[in-house]
Each structure stands twice: as C-alpha cells, then as structure tokens.
Amino acid sequence: MKIPKIKNRFCPKCKRHTEQTVSLAKSMGRSKTHPMSRGSKGRMRKRGLGRGYGNQGRLSKGAISSFSMTGAKTSKKVDLRFKCKICGKTSVQNQGFRVKRPEFKQ
C-alpha cells in the first residue's frame, strides 16, 4: 500500500494542523521483560502443573498446530509515527490497519 511521506494532520502540541512526516515504527519482538511473559506460568500453576497433580486433560487435546485458527496472519498492522515539522513532536496514529508492504511515496 502506498502511504504519503508528508501529511497534513492536527498536532496536539501546536494545537493546529501542520505538515507532518510519516515514518514506520520499528517492530519490537517479545522479551523477558514483556509483561505477558509470566502469564503462562501462573496459569499452569493454577491448573495444577508444577505442583504434582497431573496434566488435568491438557495432553488429551491434540497439538495446537492442528487447530484451524492457528498460524501467522498474511499481513501485520502498521504502526505509523507522525513528526511535526514545526515543533518536532512525534505522535502515533490512533488505529493501525493491515498492510502487507507499506510503501512511502513523495
């Protein structure tokens, strides 16, 4: 999808419409400091695993890879950043949209 490199948008800092340059935010991977990295351990403890009470039906289910709704999506949501040319403040778009290949045009 073609996205214009310069766009007229409202700047919350200047409180008026200004020309803003559009850039794509770098996608960050999951890390140990990610807030959701603890979640599965807590869930498994509640289910009894890690405490010696068996698997409670977990292994009778079948592999996740065989589920119909699993797998990577064909496109990812783009995270656009808009930088104001007057004050230099960066603002983020309020809603992402799915794009396979974002392309910035003049």
What would you note in describing this structure?
This protein is mostly beta strands and 106 residues long. The chain has a domain at 1-26 and 75-106: Nuclear Transport Factor 2, Chain: A (Roll), CATH 3.10.450. 8% of the residues lie in helices and 31% in strands. The strands form three sheets. It has a four-stranded antiparallel sheet with strand order 2-3-5-6, with no helix packed on it. A hairpin with a 5-residue loop joins strand 5 (80-84) and strand 6 (90-92). It is elongated, with a radius of gyration of 22 Å. The chain starts with a strand and ends with a strand. The relative contact order is 0.30.
For this entry, give a set of tags.
single chain; 106 residues; mainly beta; Nuclear Transport Factor 2, Chain: A; 4-stranded antiparallel beta sheet; two-stranded parallel ribbon; 1 helix
